[in-house]
Automatic annotation (TrEMBL):
Coiled coil: none
Domain Diphosphomevalonate decarboxylase-like N-terminal: 10-182
GO molecular function: ATP binding; diphosphomevalonate decarboxylase activity
EC number: 4.1.1.33
Catalysed reactions listed for this entry: (R)-5-diphosphomevalonate + ATP = isopentenyl diphosphate + ADP + phosphate + CO2
Gene Ontology cellular-component terms listed: cytosol
Pathway(s) of this molecule: Isoprenoid biosynthesis; isopentenyl diphosphate biosynthesis via mevalonate pathway; isopentenyl diphosphate from (R)-mevalonate: step 3/3
InterPro entries linked to this entry: GHMP_kinase_C_sf, Mev_decarb, Mev_diP_decarb, MVD-like_N, Mvd1_C, Ribosomal_Su5_D2-typ_SF, Ribsml_uS5_D2-typ_fold_subgr
Pfam family, one: MDD_C
GO biological process: isopentenyl diphosphate biosynthetic process, mevalonate pathway; sterol biosynthetic process
Start and end residues of each Mvd1 C-terminal domain: 196-392
Name of the protein in its database record: Diphosphomevalonate decarboxylase
Length: 407
């Protein structure tokens, strides 16, 4: 008897042109196009195993070992139904020899290798891994772009995690969403020197979710309308060119402007939404001063901050400058000893030593731009880089045991 099962992993992506606003909340069609950098799955990923079996009584999903309800008509149910429909239409109806596994119920187990408490969005990598694993389970001939349209209905930003490298999500114009798809602007190999430093900022209170926050912005912000009509189209083009030309200075300027404008439309929402806190703003001050100094030396911008719907900073920098950026951040935000995993070998042999001993600011840096914080204000630093798209994994890496329940 055949076992129908597949496992895939998918990456996190961090937007440099932000998606914020839907014109169709059911199909998840955005009010503007967006663009992101896919981060390396070796460091941050969601892994998902899907199995179809005639004996299963209902579709079930476990997230990090705990069962998650699949609400009828909800986003998960939609993605699973769309994948079954693709299996039926593109495989089973075309070739009657193929087993009719689209009629079977599925068991799905998913696992994030980063703590949810880190406040990193897991919905993008999660829905991308779900769709990628089902595509393998169903042996679909579908392209990543077709799959992106299904992941999009799970969470908008998830469509961009179907590709590695630098990825655009074209908003499209069709009411049915058929042209609202992700597209690769450049692969990981085009600019592998693009690195990212995630500063995990502690946040006690629960913020406004992206889904409800952006809907309120659409309903109440006049600034959002200006952004959609007059700002994003031009930025999409300029940042795509900057990426193609590996022009970090332009990439950085646009990235920071777009993060700022996203937080400005959040503030322009009624009632206003604040995602950044004092720590977030201090990190901005450090990056601004760091870039000022770099421009003074004739080198252009060397770091770019961006913030999503929370206080965490993601700082993009080229490989050659990341160590300096880490040392700068640690000067203001001391880390718990042994907390930093130097996975990309920034500090060589000393990587396992106390990171705080490595803290320093560049010569000429105006130290008064921010106050120094206590240990814990930035509770972790994750150094990663641009990465590839979803990967198929072997059965040994599967998350479901023989009986079809999580291991
Ligand atoms: C600020 O994709 O999480 O991270 O489509 O409602 O699930 P839903 O929203 P989501 O929003 C992401 C917003 C953002 C910007 C971005 O990733 O482009």
């Amino acid at each position: 008897m055949s076992i129908y099962q597949a496992t895939a992993s998918a990456p996190v992506n961090i937007a440099v042109i932000k998606y914020w606003g839907k014109r169709d909340t059911k199909l998840i069609l955005p009010t503007n196009s967006s663009l992101s950098v896919t981060l390396d799955q070796d460091h941050l990923r969601s892994t998902t195993t899907s199995r179809a079996d005639a004996s299963f009584e209902r579709d079930q999903l476990w997230l990090n070992g705990k069962e998650d309800e699949i609400k009828p008509g909800g986003r998960l149910a939609t993605c699973i139904a769309e994948m079954k429909r693709l299996r039926k239409e593109t495989v089973e109806d075309k070739n009657p020899e193929e087993p009719k596994i689209s009629d079977y119920k599925v068991h799905i187990a998913s696992y994030n290798n980063f703590p949810t408490a880190a406040g990193l969005a897991s919905s993008a990598s999660g829905f991308a891994a779900l769709v990628a694993s089902l595509a393998h389970l169903y042996s679909l001939p579908a392209s990543p772009s077709v799959l992106s349209a299904i992941a999009r209905q799970g969470s908008g930003s998830a469509c961009r995690s179907l590709f590695g490298g630098f990825v655009a999500w074209d908003m499209g114009t069709q009411p049915n969403g058929s042209d609202s798809l992700a597209r690769q602007v450049a692969p990981q190999s085009h600019w592998p020197e693009m690195h990212a430093l995630i500063c995990v900022v502690s946040d006690a209170k629960k913020g406004t979710s992206s889904t409800s926050g952006m809907q309120r912005t659409v309903e109440t912000s006049a600034l959002l309308q200006h952004r959609i009509a007059h700002v994003v189209p031009e930025r999409m083009e300029s940042i795509s060119n900057a990426i193609l030309q590996k022009d970090f200075d332009t990439f950085a300027r646009i990235t920071m402007k777009d993060s700022n404008q996203f937080h400005a439309v959040a503030l322009d929402t009624e009632p206003p939404i604040f995602y950044m806190n004092d720590v977030s703003r201090a990190i901005i001050a450090l990056v601004v001063e760091y870039n000022r100094l770099s421009v003074e030396k004739g080198q252009g911008y060397k770091a770019a901050y961006t913030y999503d719907a929370g206080p965490n900073a993601v700082i993009y920098a080229l490989e050659e400058n990341v160590k300096e950026v880490v040392q700068l951040v640690v000067s203001y935000f001391p880390q718990k000893p042994e907390e930093f995993k130097d996975v990309l070998g920034l500090f060589g042999e000393r990587g396992s030593l106390d990171l705080n001993a490595q803290a320093k600011v560049p010569v000429g840096f105006n130290e008064a731009v921010a106050q120094r914080f206590e240990i814990g204000a930035v509770k972790g630093l994750i150094h990663t880089r641009v990465g590839d798209g979803p990967r198929r994994l072997s059965d040994e890496e599967g998350l479901l045991a023989a009986h079809g329940l999580p291991k």
